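Weekly structure sync, notes
Attendees: PL (lead), two postdocs, one rotation student
Agenda item 3: pending single-chain targets
PL asked that the sequence for the first pending target be pasted directly into the notes so everyone works from the same version. It is reproduced below exactly as submitted, 699 residues in total.
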Amino acid sequence: MSGRYLGQSVARTRVSSFATPRNVRRTSLGSSSLLRAAYSSRPPFVTSTRSESKSTNQTLRTSAVNPSLANQQLPVRQASTSAQQWQAPQIGDRPVAVLGGGVLGRRIATTWVAAGFNTILVDLSEAQRNAASHYLEHNLDHYNKQWSQVTGGKSDPGSYKVVPDLESAVSNAWLVIEALPEKLELKIDMMGQLDRLAPHDCIIGSNSSSYKSRFMLDKVDPSRRHRILNSHYYMPPDNQTVELMTCGETQKDVLDFLNAKMEQAGMQPAVARKESTGFIFNRLWAAIKRETLMILAEGVSEPKEIDRLFLTMFKNNPAGPCAMMDAVGLDTVSNIEYNYIHERHIDATSRDYVQRNFVDQGKLGAKSGKGGLYPPGATTKSSSDEKGHHDNLAAPRLYFLDIGLGGNVDLQHLSTSGKVMTASADGSHVREIVSGQAAPDGIDVSIEAGKIFWTNMGATPAGNNGSVMSANLDGSNVQPVISIGDIHTPKQIKIDHKANKLYICDREGLRVHRCDFDGSNHEVIVQTGNADDPDDGTDQTKWCVGIAVDHDQGKFYWTQKGPSKAGKGRIFRANIDMASGESPDKRSDIELLFDKLPEPIDLEIEEGKLYWTDRGEYPLGNTLNCADVSGSGKPDGKFKTLARHFHEAIGLKIDHLNQHVYMTDLGGTVYRMNLDGSERKKVYETENAYSGIGLAYLH
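Predicted structure, written out during the meeting:
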């Protein structure tokens, strides 16, 4: 299918396989075992691995690689006086291979693709591959435009693949970039694997920010070592700096060659003149971090004050040291500081402080959901806010629905004017990824499955012509999950991620449905009346609209909204597992939690707190509300209104990682606020009408 980006059609076609040269050294050892071991030790923000047999290569996009760029022969210096004679790798259509699809790995890959180089990204985790593929899809054009601005050149992006298999990725690579977690033994094992699997002329760079590449060579044949080096990337695309450093045996010609290639690719390489733990800038940065942590450990100041002083003194810096450490991750800060302490025998006070007070308590910064030096969500910025290089790294990607009732709607095509939209958390990079939908209302996202799911109410609400749909994260492969006629007017949809189940409220159908991701095992679990009975069908107190699932507590919740702005809305709860012998219309476990509400719509549950939107009359309507439902007994019926004055409030989603609430309304606005309703911001605003919203952590 074709997606649309800023009004332009972006075709996705299949990437041809890269050829394997005859001079690749092979081994009988499995190529995936060490990579699996590496990813089993990921930091907490990286999803755990899954068997590579559960996924196939994900081939997303191709365009001809720029021959003038990729094949241009650089001026090669006189060969070094090493036992190995330097010969530059012949690039042609050979790929760059990036090992690791995390926050930095996917950015490294996108940088090379944008500059016209074929690239393969490897990750065993299906969720990481899905997220990395999505990142490339949504950011490649931006990187390519930036490359053109920096270099003055024009080129189509290279082709890319995101795969689970190490051997297929590196077997024909001219450059391999290792971007695994900062675990030395893992890097040693991986370098041994690469020595056996990569072509003899391949250059191998480690993205390690703290380990010298000389420490990774235990299992590398001496004949290979002159092509191995550190190549430490910062944070593309905002910071294109890459620091190169010898492993102690790297030929200078290799450094010169790669330095020039990186300049052609729009990067800003810098070469350390000799081996140096921390390279160049990171040594300076380490001193700043260390003294900052010492100031905090001694109780001299606090993060906001330190950062304010830093930004006053260094006016062009986008963030202070505390905010930058939070964004990178305090566990990473601690690990790097440990390496410095071990090598230089320096005082451990700063490292002990951050390890004891933050890392050991799970407060890893922006990626942990528990905050760090700053509270959760502090690095998430809106497009109108001043942003630094590391802001929004832990922010979600937004998926939201344009119901098709906006100011510019074509009335002749009203029944198919709905759209699935996606955007960055700050409201930028907005894209329509699915069009032609019949009044879409609810949406949710599964990164593990690589799918978005949404409901269509149908061309006419009374016509029993609703449906539930799915698509890949990029909007391709649109498929019905529940076909037209099998569900009446589906509203909010919610994923039980632990059970891989979909829960859907059916308004005029007077039901709550549940099914698998492919639509199988479809069942009705609540029925509030007979939709074929005119009296029941028009009784809006029986209309089911919002849905939330608490898998750990074995409960699900739903709203029955009542007539518009009539004050007859209710919220119910029941067990996920229906008692034996009972039926959807006769359940003994249904609890009425809240009643006499203006018009409750969508639901969310987070840490024992139930949140809901209400589109009823002021002062209780058009609000965001919250109640404590964590106890074992029935709640006392009390709730708190967190925010008011929306324009027909509908969609609701909790960002648990950053402790934010995202909302949409029919007035055409996407909002973000803290969990207590404070600091409300308009993330995106148009004249359209927005219904459901979902989130995905893809950065």
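Discussion points:
- Residues 397-696 form a domain with the Neuraminidase fold (CATH 2.120.10.30).
- The first strand starts at residue 2 and ends at 5.
Action: rotation student to compare against the earlier draft before next sync.
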